[in-house]
Design goal:
Serine Threonine Protein Phosphatase 5, Tetratricopeptide repeat, globular, alpha+beta, Rossmann fold, 522 residues, Arc Repressor Mutant, subunit A
Length: 522
């Protein structure tokens, strides 16, 4: 068995680690350390598991384990600061996070693997979309751009491997390069991929242009495309930015394409993944009735597959939305309903960052803002591109009085997933933070935009009324209040007539000033 990652080869049978043609010196324990983490790359490995596997369960010092970790990272060109391949998470353990290819027997006959994914999980997610990445080709003939194309391909694979929502079909780049001239549908059938990502790099005067295209492998239709122009003088780290931008863009495109495919089906005909995607679509409308419909679809998904962790996390999210956005129940009641569902989702897949982000959200709603920030930071230490974690962190920072930091974090959330179902909530949180800082006009502009796209989102009307009251536009403010009272009397009661939940208490007194200016009387 040979494991291939970046330009390294770990040969288990020969007990050799090579980089290109060079043999890398590694002690037996360091070799076993790397091999064990690669074999178990679908999860975090605890310190006790490592000790049992490598030292046979003998008692060893913390310093001995740390020295082996340092030596392992050094052998594969990684470091504790960068953690590009070997990731450490406090209280969780260690994980190999690079994209890996496996070769069994003859090196010329590679075997496909699902990189960074548990095969059992892939089996549970019936209908989950799969994707294959072709090497980014050099269109300019410049040898330096060959290196850039290979680097971007590798970084995109690494970013995709962090997504629990997709099955990443990983193959040796050398084999895939031979596929670039073939029909997309043929490639999709051969590799079992529903989508294919391809791209190119080329010189364009004093810039380098990187282009990405996402193709539906069943129809050969292009469903997404984007180009990125790069300044040649920039730091090489821009490759990471390009990879993150590409992955952040293609995931919503895949969700939309999958949704379109399932729209002609009746709810009872939907499979697990289709029901989940349909539920997200209903929830994205940000209406109380749609939120309930989404919950029924998520429940349908877990009824079909009780091991579908994302379904439980999604049901939990509908409960928190029912309280925080639509005021259909108390915050305490929603947290009580949601917490066991979130913990069940994590138990089914402890590496699901979306489920862990829901746990951070529960801390926020319970008033533990610092706990929510810590939990979000833990998630981001493993998956820096997790939009849910950035969203929760931004909200918690804002409610904790660190409003500029909160706005910056939410903006990062938007850049990673501009179509997320929590978008109107996060937009309103940015608006309320501007309001508390005295930016009433900025707040009003954002809130009008929210209402234009989500006319039944109650929170926006409350803050729009307060903002307009502070700006002296009393007639418009009173109209916004009347709409809120008609749309959601319970929201008016929960957040205006009585002190609001603990997590957003910092905003209450400033909000009341604006509402009083609008003519509201307690």
């Amino acid at each position: 068995m040979r494991y291939l990652f970046e330009d390294y080869v770990l040969d288990i049978d020969r007990r050799e680690l090579r980089r290109g043609s060079d043999l890398i010196a590694a002690t037996p324990q360091v070799f076993d350390f790397i091999a064990y983490l690669i074999r178990n790359r679908e999860k975090f490995v605890s310190k006790d598991d490592l000790i049992a596997a490598i030292w046979g369960g003998r008692i060893i010092s913390e310093a001995a384990l740390t020295s082996r970790l340092y030596a392992a990272r050094n052998a594969i060109g990684d470091s504790g600061r960068e953690q590009r391949l070997l990731k450490t998470l406090p209280r969780k353990g260690f994980r190999f996070v690079g994209a890996v290819w496996e070769e069994r027997g003859d090196p010329g006959a590679p075997t496909p693997v699902i990189a960074h994914e548990a095969l059992t999980l892939a089996g549970h997610l019936s209908g989950r979309p799969s994707i294959i990445v072709l090497p980014f080709t050099n269109l300019s003939g410049d040898p330096n751009l060959d290196i850039l194309g290979e680097g971007i391909t590798e970084d995109v694979l690494t970013e995709l491997s962090k997504l629990r929502e997709l099955v990443l079909i990983a193959r040796r780049p050398r084999l895939l390069a031979e596929s670039t001239a073939r029909d997309v549908r043929e490639i999709g059938r051969e590799f079992g991929a529903s989508y294919m990502l391809e791209g190119s790099v080329r010189a364009a005067r004093f810039r380098t242009r990187v282009t990405g295209r996402l193709i539906d492998a069943t129809t050969a239709a292009q469903i997404w495309g984007q180009r990125y122009d790069l300044d040649c003088a920039r730091d090489p780290a821009f490759q990471d930015e390009i990879a993150q931008a590409i992955v952040s863009a293609i995931l919503p495109a895949i969700r939309h394409a999958d949704l379109q495919r399932s729209q002609h089906k009746q709810p009872e005909q939907l499979g697990v993944w289709e029901a989940y995607q349909r539920g997200l679509w209903h929830m994205s409308k940000s209406e109380a009735a749609e939120n309930k419909l989404a919950r029924s679809l998520f429940q349908h998904a877990v009824d079909l597959d009780p091991n579908f962790g994302r379904g439980y996390a999604a049901i939990a999210f509908t409960y928190t939305a029912a309280s925080s956005a639509f005021s259909e129940m108390s915050i305490a009641e929603s947290c009580e309903l949601a917490e066991p569902l979130v913990r069940k989702a994590i138990a089914l897949d402890e590496n699901d960052t979306e489920a862990r982000s829901r746990l951070a959200l529960l801390s926020l709603l319970s008033g533990d803002l610092e706990g929510a920030i810590r939990e979000a930071d833990l998630i981001l230490s493993v998956h820096e591109g997790c939009p849910d974690a950035w969203g929760v962190k931004g909200a918690a920072l804002g409610y904790a009085g660190r409003r500029q930091e909160g706005r910056d974090a939410i903006k990062r959330y938007f850049s990673l997933n501009p179509r997320d179902i929590a978008r109107p909530i996060r937009q309103t949180q940015i608006a309320s933070s501007f309001y508390v800082d005295g930016g009433y006009e900025e707040a009003a502009q954002i809130l009008r935009q929210v209402i234009r796209h989500y006319p039944r989102h109650p929170i926006a009307y409350r803050w729009l009324a307060a903002s307009l009251g502070q700006l002296g536009r009393v007639g418009e403010a009173q109209q916004a209040l009347q709409t809120l009272q008609s749309l959601s009397p319970s929201s008016f009661e929960m957040y205006i007539r009585q002190p609001p939940p603990k997590y957003c208490g910092i905003e209450y007194v400033p909000m009341l000033r604006g509402l009083r200016n609008a003519g509201w009387k307690e």
